[in-house]
């Protein structure tokens, strides 16, 4: 690719994407040009957009300047971008030049942004790890929503990216027991590394006679699997005055 163009990923129709090339953007006086290093794919919202399941009249994310547009095709998407500041505008502090930064930007090889739309990545955090910032933010918000108490028995349904990070945050709390339901062996191994103490597959959890006793009458249940059927499982695992926090978007 020529250094005078930027590559951009566009969703053009359900199940169709393409890479388009546009002139390399010039930063304005109050902007910087960022050369993208990593751009994470969202297995939740982005997959819904790819499949054509998002309401087209709704803004992709009304809280982010870069995602104010609707989901009507063709459209760009992405919100976990880490890059290096390559150029700065005339009014921008020179200290920004060369910084590794995070920004809520669609998938593209380059983009322009104001400094207030960027977060400097600490030197001890690798760029490929910094792309998980939105997922960590989600995990922390879910913990705050559930308000786990000392000694409670907590179950996490699903150990995808958000589920694993959620488990890692919950493992820092003085819980009575932290369990998870996940069927993929690789995710199960990662779940144990994140602090999950009891683990079973969805098939085992769904059948009462195969369900581990550690799952029964949970105090707090998180549904982050992305599967609507897991809502019924969450209800079946709940006990008296249990709380269920839904972190999935179906």
Characterization of the model:
The protein is α/β, with parallel strands linked by helices. The protein has two domains: 5-131, Medium-chain alcohol dehydrogenases, catalytic domain (Quinone Oxidoreductase, Chain A, domain 1, Alpha-Beta Complex), CATH 3.90.180.10; 134-246, 3-Layer(aba) Sandwich (Rossmann fold). The protein contains seven helices and twelve strands. The chain has helices at residues 45-51, 127-130, 133-146, 161-170, 185-194, 202-206, 230-237; strands spanning 5-13, 16-23, 32-39, 81-88, 100-103, 110-113, 119-120, 153-157, 177-181, 198-200, 218-223, 238-246. The strands form three sheets. A five-stranded antiparallel beta sheet has the order 6-3-4-5-7. Strands 10-9-8-11-12 form a five-stranded parallel beta sheet, with helices on both faces. The longest helix is centred in the middle third of the chain and has 14 residues, at 133-146. It is elongated and about 65 Å long.
Rg, Å, rounded: 21 Å
Number of strands: 12
Class per helix and strand makeup:
alpha/beta
Biggest pleated-sheet summary: 5 strands, antiparallel
What is the CATH topology assignment of the largest domain?
Quinone Oxidoreductase, Chain A, domain 1
CATH class assignment of the largest domain: Alpha Beta
Q: Which strands sit side by side, in order, in the main sheet?
A: 6-3-4-5-7
What is the distance, rounded to the nearest whole angstrom, between the alpha carbons of the first and last residues?
A: 37 Å
Q: What would you call the shape? A: elongated
How many structurally independent domains? 2
CATH-scheme architecture of the largest domain? Alpha-Beta Complex
Uncertain spans, ≥5 residues at pLDDT below 50? none
Seen as an oligomer or otherwise, the chain set is single chain
Query: What percentage of the residues does DSSP assign to strands (E)?
Result: 25-35%
- Helicity, as a percent range: 10-25%
